[in-house]
């Protein structure tokens, strides 16, 4: 099963667009989605949950979307967030699932911890990592929080950070 882990921020399309980009390319189509959220984005979480459901169902996937209290974090509890991310990773790896993390949406500390989850194994010589870490880069900030189809492809690029870092290390 393909699993997607992301944080919810104030801009719903920042959460949706990376999945949408990858689904359109056929690169990664998640069947289970974790939406990590806090009290400040509860309304946005509900919007994102519905957008992801509609998107994936239009591609024939009936996703399991986990956005309940089990994935709720306090805004300033970094330790709990990294613990939750690690628990999700460990559970999904134990089930043999492929895990992708979107480091784009949410607060910067959430993005940093999402990136850490993806590469920490190499950094500390453990091999217990997620499989992919995605970042959808916009070169023009006029398109922040716009639907993917309204953003010219010339101003966006989706990076799989593990692959990018591995390629740079080898060059």
For the largest beta-sheet, the strand count, sense and barrel status come to: 6 strands, mixed
End-to-end Cα distance, whole Å, is 33 Å
Number of structural domains: 1
Q: Strand share of the residues?
A: 15-25%
Query: At the first level of CATH, what is the class?
Result: Alpha Beta
What is the level-2 CATH architecture name?
A: 3-Layer(aba) Sandwich
Give the ordered list of helices and strands: EHEHEHEHEEH
Q: Give the count of helical stretches.
A: 5
Report the mean per-residue pLDDT as an integer.
84
Low-confidence stretches: 106-112, 119-125
Strand order of the biggest β-sheet: 3-2-1-4-5-6
What share of residues is helical?
Answer: 40-55%
Question: Tell me, what's the shape?
Answer: globular
Count of individual beta strands: 6
Q: Would you mind describing this structure in some detail?
A:
The structure is a single chain. This protein is α/β, with parallel strands linked by helices and 171 residues long. The chain has a single domain, classed as 3-Layer(aba) Sandwich (Rossmann fold), CATH 3.40.50. Helices cover 43% and strands 18% of the residues. It has five helices and six strands. The protein has helices at 12-25, 42-58, 78-94, 108-123, 161-170; strands at residues 2-7, 32-36, 64-66, 98-102, 132-138, 156-160. The longest helix is centred in the N-terminal third of the chain and has 17 residues, at 42-58. The protein is globular and about 35 Å long. Residues 106-112 and 119-125 have low confidence and may be disordered.
Overview in brief:
The protein is an alpha/beta fold and 171 residues long.
